[in-house]
Amino acid sequence: MIINIMCPRGSFGSLNYLANLMKQIIGNNVTISGNNPKEDYKPNYLNILIDEGISSVIYKRKADIWWTDTPAMLPNSYHKIDEILLNEQLFKKHYTVSEFNKQHYKELNIPVEETTIPRPINPILFYYKTDYNNTTYDIITIGKHCICDRKNLRLQREVFLKLNFRYCVISDALMPKRPNLTQFNFGSITDEQKARLLSKSKFLLWTSFAEGFGLPVLEAMAVGTIPIYTDVPAHNEFAIGIPIKPEDKIKSCCYGVRIIKYVINEKEVEEAVQYALSMNKEEYEDLQYRCMQRATEIYNDFINKLPLLLSV
């Protein structure tokens, strides 16, 4: 069986990365196709779509199996997704990555399987471990910057300027030049380099206001870098670390559609970072162990469910 992984190029930050990671995990007989929904589907292949779910309906992306997520996008009436789903056979099976995503799809009448399949991480991460006494950075952040600033990177910048911690940024967001700040462009480093940087950082700061999954949180947990994370879907289904409660939930506009946005207060982020940096070694290592254990469970859950993605 030849597998064709369909993933629109230039889409959400992690999706193209996931397509290539899946090719690495599955092995031989895997191709990756890009941006043309009509030509990307290959009749004699098993076609698996990795993409955001709402836009996949709107753009009528056809595959045998959909494996989608969504950062709580809300289609407008003129998108006519009910009409599209009625008249087009876009998939034979549709899996998503979290209970939050599954419920969101059901509310929009988008068919979805009951079984959720989490996103994978590169297993190389499990060969690294953060040492409390031997870190280069206090905080690391990973995220592709976008016009919506969904990762709240501007907020992170303000918190950094106030608290002045040792900071590693893997992002194309504009950051100030400081001797205690190291920056790499998003997508410019290998997975092994990312694993090393994570293992040299005590905490991941993850301030996203909406997520389909939240892959960097799981990556950080795998190496024992404790996430300081916004307590919002969907990563709060698996995250262990230091949660930041949102102060409100509103409907906003992002990526040309409405979106459910959780409002994150800068002061709450500051306080969470200050608390994290005050942890002693015993407190840190206890929480670290639980992070690593949970990351292993999530990865094993993906491996056990992978055969579902490889059969219609």
Your description of this structure?
- The longest helix is centred in the C-terminal third of the chain and has 29 residues, at about 280-310.
- This protein is about 35% helix and about 20% strand.
- By secondary structure, it is α/β, with parallel strands linked by helices.
- The protein folds into two domains: about 5-115, no CATH class; about 125-295, Glycogen Phosphorylase B (Rossmann fold, 3-Layer(aba) Sandwich).
- The protein contains ten helices and 14 strands.
- The termini are close together.
- Strands 9-8-7-10-11-12 form a six-stranded parallel β-sheet, with helices on both faces. Strands 2-1-3-4-6 form a five-stranded parallel β-sheet.
- Helix 6 crosses helix 9 (about 265-275) and helix 8 packs across helix 10 (about 280-310).
The percent range for strand residues is 15-25%
Largest sheet: 6 strands, parallel
H/E topology pattern: EHEHEHEEHEHEHEEHEHEEEEHH
Structural class, please? alpha/beta
CATH C-level class of the largest domain is: Alpha Beta
How many separate domains?
2
Quantity of strands, as a count: 14
As for the CATH topology of the largest domain, it is Rossmann fold
Q: What would you report as the Rg, rounded to the nearest angstrom?
A: 19 Å
CATH superfamily placement of the largest domain:
Glycogen Phosphorylase B
Shape: globular
Mean pLDDT over all positions: 94
